Amino acid sequence: MLNKVKEFFVSLRQDKEKFLSRLRDGLIRESLWGRAKRLLVCFDQFLNVLILNGREDETLSSRFYRWGRKGGFWHSLPEKIADTLLFFDYGEENGRKIGHCEKSFRNELKRTGFPLEMR
């Protein structure tokens, strides 16, 4: 009986170590992806300032969405191109599909790039 109890606790410890190692690996991967995503946003904002003399906190996608609201073919063309290239990044609201550029614009309004204390 004592051996079975001992085996049970040993297996619990091993399962715990497996669980913790999986959790740690997941957090590292998530941390690396989070860092890579922030670097991509930083580069995107840099291009907005460098090429288009835009605002330093705005992404190109958000700017393209604002341009598209002006109307006309040439104003909405960059938004259509960005939404087509980034077709996998969309949202839904009230059953309506929201493209990448509109999603970026709404995230800018919600200040999702800011830390929670600053929102």
Describe the structure.
This protein has 119 residues and is mainly alpha-helical. It folds into 2 domains: 1-55; 58-119, no CATH class. 71% of the residues lie in helices and 5% in strands. A two-stranded antiparallel sheet has the order 1-2. A hairpin with a 2-residue loop joins strand 1 (91-93) and strand 2. Helix 2 packs across helix 3 (73-85) and helix 2 (60-68) packs across helix 4 (100-110). The model has no long low-confidence stretch (mean pLDDT 82).
Summarize the structure.
With 119 residues, this protein is mainly alpha-helical.
First-residue to last-residue Cα separation: 58 Å
Low-confidence parts, pLDDT < 50 over ≥5 residues?
none
Which percent band covers the strand fraction?
Answer: 5-15%
* Structural class by SSE content: mainly alpha
Number of domains: 2
Q: Rounded to an integer, what's the Rg over CA atoms?
A: 23 Å
